[in-house]
Amino acid sequence: MKKMIIAGGSGFLGQNLASHFKEQFDEIVILSRKISCSKENVNVRFVQWDGVSQGEWSKELEGAAVLINLAGKSVNCRYNRENQRKILYSRLNATGALTIAISNLVQKPKVWLNAASATIYRHAEDKDMTEATGEYGEGFSVNVCTAWENAFLSASIPSIRKIALRIGIVLGKDDGVFIRFKNLVKFGLGGKQGKGTQFFSWIHVEDFCRSVEWLIDHEDQVGIFNITAPAPVTNRFLMHQFRRAMNCSIGLPSPEWMLKIGAVLIGTETELILKSRRVVPERLVESGFEFSYPTIPVALRNLI
Ligand SMILES: NC(=O)c1ccc[n+]([C@@H]2O[C@H](COP(=O)([O-])OP(=O)(O)OC[C@H]3O[C@@H](n4cnc5c(N)ncnc54)[C@H](OP(=O)(O)O)[C@@H]3O)[C@@H](O)[C@H]2O)c1
């Protein structure tokens, strides 16, 4: 029986992956802190864990072909001390619990893909950040990304192929980021945000799932991969393309001071909009992966 495990698979990316892979696997097990069941997919089963300690859930990993770990508290919140602690430890604990569970298995999964983030690179407007030449940033988010990747990559489990997915912002019809952009445009606020020169590294959710499938199937691929479309865009261009796709001629800009007030009011951080992520998927492209949605106009035409 071919089985896939998705830890933290109850959210946006996990549910898209489950739908994408449901016909390729006999069973998909979602590790979640909540008891739930999949209404849409008959071969998708939820198993409870706490993302920290060992338990019955770890038996599910025995003989599984693929493990994907996406668990982590959402970063869409204010970075106060309590949230910072939860953002960091939800990722470290889940990755650590999976490492222990795997080391106790007789038949280990062949491949383990762990979420990571393109936020690990510095604020960059001047040049592309590749896996080989990208420069790391600093501050809370970068520290979380670094610790998370280290927790995943440092524990050596010889028979497992490990892949860290440095994911850019995934655009999908049913996700909050895409819906927020659409609403801004709808209400006439779809102009540039801040200076508008900051880059936005994105990927269409279908290409996200396809790139995960590509990495599972290509057994020679291992290590760190940027999971972004090959063409990051400036915020100014992004907003222009959103307005165009939605036939909206008016788009008031949001200066930095306004974003700062707005972020406090809606309980988020301006870093998510103002940090320039100019990240490109050099290793995916070199491996021969072809994007269905390589540019933002093509992706938005599909999504809107
Ligand atoms: N979406 C993106 O654009 C993007 C970009 C870069 C990186 N990523 C990373 O990819 C991963 C998945 O993203 P997503 O968009 O699918 O996020 P999501 O919708 O927020 O799902 C994350 C999952 O993590 C689990 N989780 C939350 N807090 C947890 C905790 N304290 N302990 C254990 N599990 C916890 C939740 O599962 P339960 O509540 O069911 O336990 C949730 O379903 C995240 O780690 C995220 O940082 C996402």
UniProtKB/TrEMBL annotation:
Residues 255-303 form the DUF1731 domain. It comes from the Bacteria. SUPFAM superfamilies: NAD(P)-binding Rossmann-fold domains. Signal peptide: none annotated. CDD domains: SDR_a8. Pfam families: DUF1731 (PF08338), Epimerase (PF01370). InterPro entries: DUF1731 (IPR013549), Epimerase_deHydtase (IPR001509), NAD(P)-bd_dom_sf (IPR036291), SDR39U1 (IPR010099). Residues 4-227 form the NAD-dependent epimerase/dehydratase domain. Belongs to the NAD(P)-dependent epimerase/dehydratase family. SDR39U1 subfamily. This is TIGR01777 family protein.
